[in-house]
UniProtKB/TrEMBL annotation:
Cited SMART domains: MADF (SM00595)
Origin species: Temnothorax longispinosus
GO cellular component term of the entry, any: transcription regulator complex
Annotated MADF domain residues: 63-155
Region (Disordered): 130-175
One of the protein's GO biological processes: regulation of transcription by RNA polymerase II
Top-rank taxon, per record: Eukaryota
Name the UniProt record assigns to this protein: Histone H3
Amino acid sequence: MDAILKHSCFGLFNAACQILSVDEAGKIIMTDINLMETTGDESLNDVTGNENNASEPQEVDEELISIVQQRPALYDPRIPLQERTKLKKKDLWQEVSNCLGEVSPVGAEKRWQYLRDCYTKARRNFKKIQSTEKRSGAAAMNDSNDLENRPPLTSPGISELSVATSSSRKRQHSNNIDEVDRAFLQTLSTNIQPNPIDGFILRLAEGMRRLPYRERSQLALEFLIILREMEEKLGLLNN
């Protein structure tokens, strides 16, 4: 008996409130005396809701995860099937129950399934958030790339027309490039004389851009009224 109690699975054994028994398969089971009169099927609350349990729910969950992690046959589908039979899993959950203490095998299994489902949902939601952030950050670029990379949906007649006119467009485009280059160089070489009116307009526009929309509209209307009155006074509107 001393050799059995030295095993890590029975580290929480308390002779005052627990007993050891052997099932039909020859497995040693640690059972709480207070639970012997109840049925063996507990709900999820049996894992963390027992008022007599001294451990906090979070500590119980962490301990449960640590114990199950040492038994890959309970969660890893890559383990050979002969090591994951119902009978062997039942024995493993009994070991988990013995290590936890005051938690039945059924309660431990249900709690593990609940924690696994919570982790799966949280991870799925996290990936959705990451995917949404990436799409929102590059939505315009992706739409542009999709339009550029999308194959043209043209009928045979339109395709033939495009091929027939492509050579003439290329020749016209080359001529336009020469004309554009010359116009661009000519514009750069032209000396622009500073105009006081242009400077005033630029300064006025810069200041009005900083104004709220309502004040900017009111000020623009006042300027136009003053300009209109001055043009009428000078007789410029009659010409």
